[in-house]
Structures are given as C-alpha cells and as structure tokens.
Write a structure and sequence with these properties.
Shape: globular
Order of helices and strands: EEEEEEHEHEEEEEHHEEHEHEEEEHE
Mean pLDDT: 93
Number of domains: 1
CATH class: Alpha Beta
Largest sheet: 20 strands, mixed
CATH architecture: 4-Layer Sandwich
Oligomer: single chain
Helix content: 25-40%
Number of helices: 7
Number of strands: 20
Length: about 350
C-alpha cells in the first residue's frame, strides 16, 4: 500500500477488511452539499481565535487490507522530558493551584525523534489493530501525517442535539481478569479521578450554556468507565439542544479549545500550558473530524497521536495528564508513559529520558 494523495484522510474498517482513503481538497468554509473534513490546531496564544482548516472530501477509495510485513522496523530512540524536570514543572503548577490561580491544568510532555524514516500507513494499521480506538484516522497533509487512535469525542452534532464526552481518569489494563476488574473498580471510586473529571464536566456545561437553548444543558452520564485494549478511561457525557440557526463556526468559537486538555478555568490554564510546556502542541490536543452535508458533525480530540513530518523525518508524540491539588507528580509521569506505550511500541522505539 502506498499513499498517493497530497491531502487525504484514511480510516480503517476491520470488519469489512478495507482501508478507506478519502482524497481531500483545501477549501474555504464548509462546502454545502458535500462532506467536509475539519482540522483545528491547539491555539498558539490564549486569545487566538480557532483556526479551522477545511477540506472538501472526495469519494472514498476502498483498499483491500494487505498483511502487515513480518517483524518490526529497526528500533530507534525517542526522547522525553526527564522525570526530574517533569516533577519540577508539576510542582510549579501545583503552586498555581494552591494560590487559587487555577483548579486543574492538563500538562503535557513531548516524545520526539529526528532523522527517522517510517511508513506512516503501516504504523497506523499496526497501532489501530492494538488500540481498536473509536476515532482512529490518519490524515495526510502534504508531507505531514497525523496518525491518531483517539478514544475521545470532543463534539458530535445530531440535528439540534450537541454531545461532548470528556475523558479524565486513566487506569492500566490488568494482567488477569481479576486484576482488570480491580483496576476498573479503583478508577471508578478514586476521589482524585472523580475530582478531575467533574471539573471538566463543569467547564463543558458552562461552555455549552453559551450556545444552548435555555434549560437544555444536562449531564447524561457521570464517571462512566470505558475499557479499551490498552487502558480504562473515566468518561462523562454532556449534551444540550442548539438553536436552529447554529453554525459550526459559532459552536467552535464558543467551546474551543477542548476543556479536557486545557483545565479550569480554561483561559488561565491555557496561559500556563503555553508558559510551562517545553513544546508547542500544534495539531496535538486540537480536534478533527467530518462535517456532513446535512449539518451534523463529529470531532475527535487529537490525542494518542503521532505527528510525522516526512520531509524533516521528525516524529512528535504528545502525552499528558490532569494536574490537581490531589495529584502525585510521580504517578502523573507514569500515566504519561502509560498513554505513550502503544504509540511507542507501534514505532518500535525505545524511550530515553533526557
């Protein structure tokens, strides 16, 4: 399998054993009567308006899945911020929490490598066969690739109903069935994880109230545990009814950036993210997805993702966790490495702390 299109989005259908390749053409705004793909990077400044990149989606080309090559590519080293530097940064963020500056912030680190040549499609196929993520897709933008196996829904519009499913709270899968159930039980009953989750639910409810019909914002589910091949996640569901005249741009302007990967309050948390993180998120922690001809849309959060630049042969993986007054910096660092594990394994890389 080879990639021929300068702009394209790829989705994997394991049930039908096909890869859907949908070529895309950059356009201005939503293309009426046609499916459109949208990508919105993380803001570069707290006051930057959302930068929505639109692509008119062409008819899907179906490619029969071939057997992956035996073995893995040659291993290489991928570097990440050291545990010591991470803990120092988290302690500073916890000070902001102690003085009432913020309640919660999603602090992220980057795993990166240079001068590495990979086959993006093979990495995507290998990764999704492990992750089985609900919002898995690979996007090709010229020489840049976003390989994402995201479990998180940012926004879904069905008619006038708008839904968000923020994720906060992570636990590893167990090695045995008993251990797996115990990990789920501990996650569900964790005061720390519930505190993180409900803060983001409150931010989402507040954001929804800016655009919803009065009295329609509701929490449909709270602290639901969803299980994926690699982790358990605590997921809540918030919904509202939109006014009939609502447009995608209005919704994004009111709700962006994604609450679960910023913090509370959202604007101040974003300022601290830009101050303390050692890399620029760019596509990571942004959102992407399809806008249908009838006005419905589904946008996932760009997490559990690899960004690969084929021209510079550079790899970037962002991983993060919620920092609250209850968090243990050591455990938060371990959570970041847990979230990166499947991505690093798909690349056959070895993590080196710098």
């Amino acid at each position: 399998m080879s990639l021929h299109h300068e702009y394209a989005v790829y989705t994997l259908d394991e049930q039908e054993k096909v890869l859907r390749c949908q070529p895309m053409v950059p356009c201005v705004g939503v293309t009426e009567g046609q499916e459109t793909f949208c990508i919105i990077p993380f803001p570069e400044t707290p006051d930057e308006p959302p930068r929505i990149h639109y692509y008119a989606v062409q008819k899907a080309e179906l490619v029969a899945l071939q057997k992956l090559p035996e073995g893995l590519p040659e291993p290489f080293r991928i570097k990440v911020q050291s545990r010591e530097e991470y803990i120092q940064a988290v302690q500073k963020l916890k000070h902001h929490i102690q003085i009432g500056d913020i309640y919660e912030v999603n602090y992220c680190v980057e795993l990166s490598a240079e001068n590495i040549s990979i086959d993006p499609l093979q990495v995507f196929l290998r990764l999704q066969r492990v992750a089985c993520a609900p919002y898995a897709r690979m996007v090709k933008l010229g020489e840049q690739y976003i390989i994402s196996v995201s479990p998180e829904l940012f926004l879904k519009r069905e008619g006038r109903r708008l839904i968000s499913k923020p994720i906060k709270g992570t636990a590893p899968r167990g090695k045995t069935e008993a251990q797996d159930q115990e990990n789920k039980h501990l996650l569900y009953n964790s005061l720390k994880e519930r505190t993180e989750n409900v803060m983001i639910v409150d931010v989402t409810r507040n954001d929804f109230s800016k655009i919803a019909e009065r009295g329609t914002v509701r929490v449909d589910q709270l602290y639901t545990i969803e299980t994926y091949n690699t982790v358990h996640q605590m997921v809540s569901t918030v919904s509202c009814t939109l006014p009939a005249e609502s447009k995608l741009e209005n919704v994004i302007e009111a709700l962006y950036p994604v609450p679960s990967i910023t913090g509370a309050p959202k604007r101040r948390a974003t300022e601290l993210i830009l101050q303390y993180e050692t890399f620029r998120r760019a596509f990571y922690c942004g959102t992407m997805g399809f806008y249908s001809a009838n006005g419905d849309f589904e946008l996932s959060v760009i997490i559990r993702s690899i960004v690969y630049d084929a021209l510079s042969q550079s790899i970037s993986i962002g991983v993060g966790s919620a920092i609250t007054h209850l968090c243990d910096p050591e455990k938060e660092y371990d959570e970041c490495l847990l979230k990166a594990r499947a991505l690093v394994n798909a690349l056959n890389a070895v993590i080196i702390q710098e």
